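hey can u check if this looks right to u? its 291 residues, i copy pasted from the old doc so theres a chance i mangled smth
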Amino acid sequence: MRHAGSLGYTEVVDGASSTTLKQDATFKIIPGLADASCYSFEARNFPGSYLRHQSNRVRLDARNGTALFDQDATFCARAALDGSQNVSLEARNLSGSYLRHRNGELWVEAIANTQGDRQDATWAVVTPRWRNGMDLPVNTYRSLQVVTPGFTNRYLRHQNSLGYTEVVDGASDSTLKQDATFKIVAGLADASCYSLEARNFPGRYLRHASDRVRLDARDGTALFDQDATFCAQPALFGTGTSFESYNFPGRYLRHSDSQAWLAGGGASTGWDKALSFSEDASWNLVSPWAP
């Protein structure tokens, strides 16, 4: 499913597809605009625009504040019409009509009692083709500031090949300032995410290994590239950025006791503790200490 020219279509999408196509085929699932027990689908690359039906054709339009728009843009999840473990999406204001594809186009229609039509109205919800939830400035240097209250004078840095946080200010030495500066580059494993390259060690990237965040030289393996790829998401706390692991969705770059880890906040103690997880896994991207 994708949008193009304000209309809904289906198209072949794979890893080699363009950035535009991958973004067009990615939607944010939110509580339904007309009914929070259902869902609406917001375009990844056009925030504020939603899939909606109009004269049965599925379109992508900006929300206009009317009740009709909100109803047209709300779909309720139902058991898959083809009997699979996937999902069918019934229009909130057209009972018995479902989101379906035919001839490469998206429509909302009543579904004939044939297996082919039932399959056309059945969808699998999968990992998004465009993994970032927010855009960062590629090929620029930034420093990552801690946002946890009481620790906002600390920044992510590398030291002896490991990730830490440390107090950095104008009086800090040049080594610390460079250690606390990273280049944001396209993700080594997926260009829809990001990798963080050391300012003072080009070719070395932050990556996780056994959950500890390290700084290592790229070794040419797929595992390294995946471990060194993080998808930018709106901050779990505040207005900054949270960095979600590419190969361990739901786990984020976080600090704990001045060390940097990959964590999900599922433990009662230690570096993966739930206490202050959202704060510790959020960062402000600020001007680099070492431009």
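Helices lie at 19-24, 67-72, 115-120, 174-179, 222-227, 277-280.
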